[in-house]
Design brief:
This protein is mainly alpha-helical. It contains 7 helices and no strands. α1 packs across α6. The longest helix is centred in the C-terminal third of the chain and has 20 residues. Keywords: Hydrolase, Membrane, Transmembrane, Transmembrane helix.
């Protein structure tokens, strides 16, 4: 999946956390923004990702890491969570959890890609829902299903839940 798809999925994951947690309305804009930002972080392992094009050492990280391996795992998600809670102890937990949900949404949505990801890192298996679900439920990056259907559906859902948060 591409950055806009991951950002939208991160926003939806953050909205779910905020909604289920009954977060005060004042937290929603920052929580949704954090979810979107976190939704693109796992691709730090890809040399041409949005972050690698903009961070000083980004391309080094992209070349040093294998795409869809460590950063696309449950272990990385847990470490990201621990790091956030350590880095920002004064930030309300619901905002940190919304951020982690945005990160993990990236990992999970990449399961729709036939290449899969190393969800159970350090175990070497690449896991993909494409092994059990057919096309068009699973599809390659930049396939028309991602660009036309999934991305637009995610963005519509983002807008609907912002306008009408009781949908969650």
């Amino acid at each position: 999946m591409m950055g806009p798809t991951h950002a939208a999925a991160g926003m939806i994951a953050a909205e779910l956390v905020l909604g289920v947690s009954h977060a005060p309305p004042i937290y929603w804009p920052i929580g949704i923004a954090l979810g979107a930002a976190a939704g693109i972080i796992p691709d730090i392992d890809h040399p041409s990702s949005f972050l690698n094009q903009r961070l000083p050492l980004g391309s080094t990280a992209g070349m040093a890491l294998n795409h869809r391996h460590f950063t696309h795992s449950i272990v990385a998600t847990l470490l990201f969570s621990v790091y956030l809670h350590w880095l920002w102890p004064m930030v309300p937990g619901v905002l940190l959890n919304a951020t982690v949900a945005g990160y993990f949404s990236h990992v999970m949505i990449d399961e729709l890609n036939p290449e899969g990801d190393q969800l159970l890192w350090p175990l070497p298996w690449m896991i993909s829902l494409a092994r059990i679900l057919p096309y068009p439920i699973t599809f390659s990056t930049e396939d028309w299903m991602e660009i036309v259907i999934l991305r637009n559906a995610l963005w519509i859902l983002v807008i609907l839940t912002i306008v009408q948060p009781k949908l969650i």
